[in-house]
Amino acid sequence: MVGRHPARTGRAALVAIAALALAAVHPAADATPPPAPGPVPSAAQTLGADRPSAAMLQALQRDLKLTPAQATARLVNEAEAGARAGRLRNTLGAHFAGAWVKGSTASELTVATTRAADASAIRAQGAKAAVVSASLSDLRSLKTKLDQAALRAKKAADTPVRYVDVRTNRVVVQATSRQAADALIKAAGVSTKRVAVRVSKERPRALADLVGGDAYHINNTFRCSIGFSVTKGDQNGFASAGHCGKPGDTTTDPNGTQQGTFQASTFPGKDMSWVGVTSGWSVTPKVRGEGGATVDVAGSVEAMVGASVCRSGSTTGWHCGTVQEQNATVTYAEGTVNGLTRTTVCAEPGDSGGPYMAGTQAQGVTSGGSGDCTSGGTTFFQPVNPILSDFGLTLVTATAQSNAPLPQDTAADAWATGRVYETGATVTYDKVRYQCLQSHQAQGAWAPKSTPALWQRL
Q1: Helix (H/G/I), strand (E/B), else coil: 99
Q2: What is the C-alpha separation between 138 and 141, in angstroms, rounded?
Q3: Is 95 a catalytic residue?
Q4: Strands (E), 216-316
Q5: Spatial separation of the C-alpha atoms in residues 235 and 424, rounded to whole Å
Q6: 158 flagged as catalytic
Q7: pLDDT tens for residues 286-308?
Q8: In the predicted model, is pLDDT for residue 17 greater than 60?
């Protein structure tokens, strides 16, 4: 069951109680030569969306009210939509205004642009075109002004959430009253034309608590949930939320066994940390899913707005929902956190730090939210790719690594495994230029020339 420590055989396995733990698959020394190049894999094949786990499908059926066929189709459609949206984002450049999927099977992709002439190019990619007045970069700049005004405000907690809603082409301010929202908008010096106000009494909170009993404990006091297994050099460990602990804090498992020490932590500002574990713990490519079954993690390709995501936590187990907005700013009682992703997945105290998954792709670790898993609610997660990039970590995955030798590129921007690439980044691979379509951490099996779902040849 979720929350129960897995049995150990010699070394304890970091198959998380609420946790996502990942293990690299290392090729055998006497492995046979790679096969001759075949057909280029589809986006769904590259990301493993065509072979989801039973635990993932069961949770999607339960939480999104889908049939088995709809759950299967949704994961494939989301993977393909992400690649198409990435190509269009690079093509539209400064005119790009966001992209999202909708429908029970995520079969409808919409891409927004500020230039009507782009509509034909969008439709050529099988997407619906939305012509809007503000680009994504314009909306993000407006949100930054609101965030800065909130930091200066004496009552920032009265306007606890700000985010860009690409579907309405607006920046949303969630406030406890209309008056509080109006005061923030005025202080930021921005036009009300681009800002929507959502009045709600909800006050997001960080989801750690003082209850012991499962997951991992910090200084024998606080409890959080393990996130993703990572490595840094020869050090094994796991990523989690920053509010769970500070550098030097120690962790134990639910049985009181020494586990590790926080190596780095950022909170507020961001909500990220990682714990280096002792030699008695090994990393695996698993996260606890429905009924204690495990789900493999194949990479960290970022899901788009509207995509389905599932979360594992030591308090409430495995729950699913959809991505609502990205790059949200949330003000907790302890401070303001930027760059979070807002979701419809429920969570409760103790679930903090636990992993979010989109199909087989790691998305982030639980930060905070409002509501609970009885009445429902809103939850925010810290995206995983910034954690990997900021702390120099490598996500351990179940993706088979390539045996083929890498080309000896000498260019300053040569593609490299372990590096986090954002959408739009350009690299050189085997003397050919490529542009990134979807944010992810590079791994050996995902070389640009063989993954058109992630890289576009220039």
Answers
A1: strand
A2: 5
A3: no
A4: 216-218, 222-224, 229-232, 235-240, 250-252, 258-266, 272-277, 281-282, 286-288, 294-296, 308-313
A5: 31
A6: no
A7: 888 888 788 899 999 999 999 99
A8: no
Give residue 402's pLDDT band: very low, low, confident or very high (50, 70, 90). Answer: low
> Residues 243, 351, 370, 440: which is the catalytic one?
243
Report residue 24's pLDDT band, with 50, 70 and 90 as the boundaries.
very low
* Longest CA span, the chain: 69
* pLDDT(229) > 60: yes
Which distant-in-sequence residues (6+ apart) come within 8 Å of 449 by Cβ? 429, 430, 432, 434, 455, 457
Average pLDDT on 408-415 reads 86
What residue segments make up the domains of the chain, in order of their start? 12-25+47-75+136-399, 404-457
Q: Active site residue: 53, 312, 352, 370, which one?
A: 352
pTM assigned to the model: 0.85
Residue 182 a catalytic site member: no
Catalytic residue among 271, 296, 308, 312: 271
| CATH 2.40.10.120 given to domain 12-25+47-75+136-399 | yes
Superfamily of domain 404-457 in CATH is: Carbohydrate-binding module superfamily 5/12 (2.10.10.20)
Report the relative pairing of strands 335-343 and 317-332 from DSSP bridges.
Answer: antiparallel
Q: What is the dihedral of CA 110, 342, 169, 161, to 10 degrees?
A: 180
Q: Which two tokens stand for residue 357?
A: 């998954």
